[in-house]
Amino acid sequence: MTVSEDLLQRIKAKYGDLSTAQKSIAQYLLDNYEKAAFLTAGQLGTLVGVSESTVVRFANTLGYGGYPHLQKEMQEHLKRELTTVSRLQQSPGKLKGPSLVHQILENDIKNLRRTMEEISPEVFDRVVEEIGKAPNIFIIGNRSAHCLALFLAMYLELLGKRVKAVPTGVTSIFEQLTIVQTEDLVIGISFPRYTSKSVEGFEYAARRGARTVAITDSVISPLAQLADLTLIAKSDLNSFIEAFAAPLSLITALATAVGMRERENVLRSLEHLEEIWDNYRIFYHGLERGWQEPIEK
Amino acid sequence: MTVSEDLLQRIKAKYGDLSTAQKSIAQYLLDNYEKAAFLTAGQLGTLVGVSESTVVRFANTLGYGGYPHLQKEMQEHLKRELTTVSRLQQSPGKLKGPSLVHQILENDIKNLRRTMEEISPEVFDRVVEEIGKAPNIFIIGNRSAHCLALFLAMYLELLGKRVKAVPTGVTSIFEQLTIVQTEDLVIGISFPRYTSKSVEGFEYAARRGARTVAITDSVISPLAQLADLTLIAKSDLNSFIEAFAAPLSLITALATAVGMRERENVLRSLEHLEEIWDNYRIFYHGLERGWQEPIEK
DNA sequence: CCACAATTGCAGCAATTCCTGCAAAACCAT
DNA sequence: ATGGTTTTGCAGGAATTGCTGCAATTGTGG
Fold this sequence. Notes:
The structure is a homodimer. By secondary structure, chain A is of the alpha/beta class.
């Protein structure tokens, strides 16, 4: 816990006693430990302009058992930085222990970051294209992913698309997919542990020649193997429940992008909807906020 | 640029040709490269449960010159993630091409952060209590919030609770809520622009003397006024679509906490479910991972 | 300028990590 | 089952990386 601080503090504490060459190493570490964490003693030495031995002795001076020990500490520091929200680190004694809520929200933040990192804007755009021009859209999603499927379906419908969420229900997925045609788009949403019905349904659709998009958690998911286009959203689960924030966010982005693509149509049909919503009092009227323009600084 | 994609793409390309042991390595790398990047071949092998040799051969199969080469690639990937994220953090929305996806995911990260700051662990715990001891639970959620309601309902059901998601459907919310009793718990989920049906239904339940919990976006939301307990999840919308990542994450945390509260019961009923799942082949079997314990340090 | 101390780099040795031949085990299709 | 193929782990040698004695260098105060 205080491990990462240790490194910085050790350097600070001993900095005065260090020799010139060692000071330059210390300097480099403070500025670039995210690079240094991966270097061998020799490489680090060359980079800083000192010999390998000096680097080793530097580690010893700081009180480490050897260079590998120092290196490990840098790596821990790095890992910590990756997974922890800086805000939490800074906020003082406010939180006694990282409560469960915090752990889970933090985990979802990590998933979102990672998703952001791995998502390919090109693929994303092409998916938006596909959704835009597809005459019919089928969305496969079972169990927990069904909620995601419904969400996507609902918004695409709002945007004037012909959409059908296809869960296993009264009729099997296959039956519901018999009407799929080659121009149609099938979006499969599935995360570990992938439900077999979803995989089979998706496979069936692919074999029938439909265009296929997978929203899943990794390139090696069974859906990704079958799909024309794959969008990755991370969903590391560290409990028995899926962490679906990232997939949901991705789906939100998808729907938004589709909306942007056909701005005119969408605005028109939204205006129309507003009227309906108003007439039928769909929304609560105590706190009506009205339409909000995309703001954000 | 394409360096980091290379690793993923290589894995995807060769994944089919890999053996079982190698697949589990691939799996581990995709989920945990931030840890794997620091490990030696031997350590990685031990962690995944295969021999060092298999790890080395895995690297070769992917086309790398050896394990160090593969390792270097993971490190590059990691470094990239670090720098990208910090860049994104520092200048939100100021990127050269701030793609829509990034904007939206980033916005959701912001929502999660603010939710994390504003959530009260005490209230959260009390809500968990309430859920735990309630004989029946009703979850009100309409339109987009319906997905959230379904999600929560599904998991609570999995945990052995008597739950009913109450959307406007064949019968009105009121009709569905006539059976509510004073010991029962009603959870209302609603975000701007609050659907009137949800507010009215929630109000009705409150007047009937049920215990009430609101999951909503602010203390001044109509639901919060009526509820015994209120959980705040931020959902700043910067488009016509709600950003529901934070509420979803909060709900995930809720369900997890409830699960933890009754660990024994839950584990027992999960074991039972595992059997059922297995017998009926609910999950896809190519990539079966089995039950994973909550790990993380 | 000299003597002495501290620091540095080299070179070779020690330790770790990685690679590969080989036999046992697992798998698979008869 | 059975024979053949593939996969796996082990063991030991190869390569890399880290450590340290020693001599050269630098720096310093007299």
